[in-house]
Amino acid sequence: MHASTFPRMHVSLYVSSIEHTVNFYNSFFGKQPEKVRKGYAKYLLNSPSLIISFVENKERVQAHFGHLGFQVETLQELNERLTAAQQSGLLTREEIGTNCCYASQDKFWVTDPDGTQWEVYYFHADAEFNDPHYEHETAAACCIAPAGKPKYELKNLTTETCCVPGGGCC
Q1: Nearest to 28, CA basis, from 71, 95, 72, 89
Q2: According to CATH, what is the number of the domain 9-57?
Q3: Is the distance from CB of 158 to CB of 93 less than 8 angstroms?
Q4: What three-state secondary structure class fits 118?
Q5: Could you state, in chain order, the average pLDDT of each consecutive group of 10 residues for the chain (170 residues)?
């Protein structure tokens, strides 16, 4: 049997502390897990359709696998989620007008207790160049602001906001 789409994605991550993980994801997802057992927690998200489970096993936690993320549909939703992340103390970094993965995006990042990075981003348009910071060995996520650059705010953005090569925003 062949289906063109899958009904729901499943992700399972090893974590070092279920308690710390559940506290973080309760804030990040804005909901309680569907199931919690000794060393285990599972969340069911409807939008996007995702099952994500966490298995406590400190020895199996792996760094540098990349990152996970959610694309939002509007800048207003991005700003609302940013505000929630700030109020919960989850915000790690904000990036505005960056070209990451050959796409012009506005985004912010949070990092869970085991170092798993999540980006929440708004996609503006495809881009013909990628931020050069993404190529650096030290890049922890897609893009990293150069030293000395100001922290950008995501308030009152428009769809015209973007970064151009040499523009200094990334």
Answers
A1: 89
A2: 3.10.180.10
A3: no
A4: strand
A5: 72 96 97 96 94 94 86 95 96 90 91 95 87 56 40 38 39
